[in-house]
Amino acid sequence: MVGKIKRKTFSLLTAVIFSMSYVFSFIGQASAEETLTVQQAIENNSGTGTVEGYIVGHTTGTNNYDFEAPFGNDFNFALADKPDETDPAKILPVQLPSSFRGTFGLQTNPDIVGEKVRVTGSLGAYFTVPGLRSPTSIQFSDGSGGDPGEPEPPAVTGLRIHDIQGEGHVSPYKDQQVAGVKGIVTKIEGSSSFFIQDPEEDGNPNTSEAIYVYKKDHGLAVGDQVEVAGLVKEWVLDGYSEKLQTDLAMTEINATSIKKLASGLELPAPVVIGKDRIAPVQVIDNDQFGEFDPAEDGIDFYESLEGMRIGVDSPQVIGPQKYGEVPVIDSKVEGKVYSPQGGILLTKESANPERMFLLINRDFVAKAGDRFDGLVTGVVSYSFSNFKILVDQETLPELIEGELAEDQTSLVINDDKLTVATYNIENFSAATDAAKTSRIAESIINNLKTPDIIGLVEVQDNDGQKDSGSSDASQSYEALISEIAKQGGPTYSWTDIAPVYNQDGGAPGGNIRVGYLYNPDRVQLKDAPKGTATDSVAYENGDLTLNPGRIDPQNPIFEDTRKALAAEFEFNGEDIIVIANHFNSKGGDDPLFGKIQPPVLDSEAKRVEIAKVLNQFVAGIHAQDPDANVVVLGDLNDFEFSRPIEELKNGQLTNMIEMLPLEERFTYNYQGNSQVLDHILVSNHLADRTEADIVNINSLYMEEHGRASDHDPVIVQLDLNPQSQEKKCKGNDKEKQDNGKHLGHDKKGKACGYKKAG
Q: Region Disordered: start and end of each range (predicted)?
């Protein structure tokens, strides 16, 4: 009996062990098939595994990687969990046997950087760091690629360039091999790339007749006729670090072979914009790429010309050259708003898709209002979030310079009126060169007519961007004050609150902040304790508790951003509170001509919240004293029609920018769009007693033209004594008839109770 029990026990134990071994075997198999992140593969670098990640570059040695083409060979690629990863500790080098190099080798296929792939192979040391060797399968995230030995489909033949381009932003032959594609070389872009164009059009304006070709050491020249074979790709060219997430791709052929058929041929005639094709002038995109509509959508229009030779006849320059790019339009459009100097204004209705960018060189000098004397030709490319025209330098016509008219405010110093200005002086410090310091001082004296109070923006500490550990800017203010006095202006006083070191954004070590210059012969800074970088100012018993004082500086919304600075002044017995600001920049917003439509404005939310904080502070002042005089000014980094500015006004303030004619509303030029970023707002009860002016001396010009900054200053003149104003308006019929305008000048805001100067 005992023997039977033992045998049964043994049999049962054997069955259990067998069952458990089966279960463990199954569990082990499931684990082996689990897809790992790159970080998991680095941390558990043994056995066989499948890893998913982004190709970020090429491994050149232990913890050394190339992230930009050209790459040295096809023997490996580097994998990471993020497409823009550069930290060696977060990168997995992957070996490429010969069977995978044709598709995944980076020397042959540099445009696959940024692509997501899934790799199965042996996890272990490679280049003496955690890696993956001897892969048995590599696939792109869309399933293309495959196992070694998988036969490639034959190259598609019989295609012309317009077939490859198709009607859209992505080629219908993307990731397919093509052969026998003919065209004439129209532009050489270094030793590894060029453009070709089919001289015979298909009659369809929605398909481009040209294409970008990548082939290392191609040895070709403009005018060569070639036959190309290779892989069709959508490749993002030069751009910012986030280009793979934001920018459009160019259709290209990654050539495996090129055959030269002829040389010295005549190039295809350029498509002349404004004559052969009319660019859209209102819409960049209104259907989220749902319909390819070059006749209506600017982003589709330029895509339909991708790589092609185009011409612009006598284009007008609409902004200064920057980074080698000159923004132009082919002609003015009826109903659009243009500045007297020749710029085009960004409006709520249109971002002006007709703007084009001539890529010339960084030494080229041009300003708004200049015009080219003849046909400018080049090929359409795309880089840094915009379509560009790669100009034919050898045939570039002469630039005819427009008149350089100096702008001066018409607001004249008046014993009974206070002048207040805002001026972004672009990273100014005591280390700024003497020429720029002189230009800023001259503009304050001659163009702004020495305002009583100036809210300065982008004042850096004494040593500029040197990492000294000190944020004191006393020498920076004194350098400017000294130069103003030297040139015959008043001897200003200054005040600010130095930020906590490197806590307010801007260039590291620079510690930019807002601050004030004020003329002590005309205004006085009211007596009160000066706040610190972390003290919060309040309004009690008719005055600021700190002077100057920061508004809610420890509010998380101000993290890594300049804090609002309130200061209280006295002018002719009247008190006035001025609040200087420099809102967070538009960095991080999607580009107008990017792959995300409509663009997502991530930075706006923070400006909205900052505006709410300021509006509540002003509302608190007005709740205690409805007649309190408040001015809010500075670089608000948004437009007069934007949500942040609406939140800032919100029943408390009037934006004096809106009192100016449309064609005069700009303080900055970005990519050819003249726009308002700098504002002055006043308490609503002051609006009818305030005149405004924007002095356009910088934004449309280069340093060669005498610009002192990249922003134009804004100035207002206020009558703080309502009885005096009422008496003057009642007793001066001539001024009432002129609607408060000074003779010979019509850049005015509200005056003498009139809503707007006409």
A: 721-758
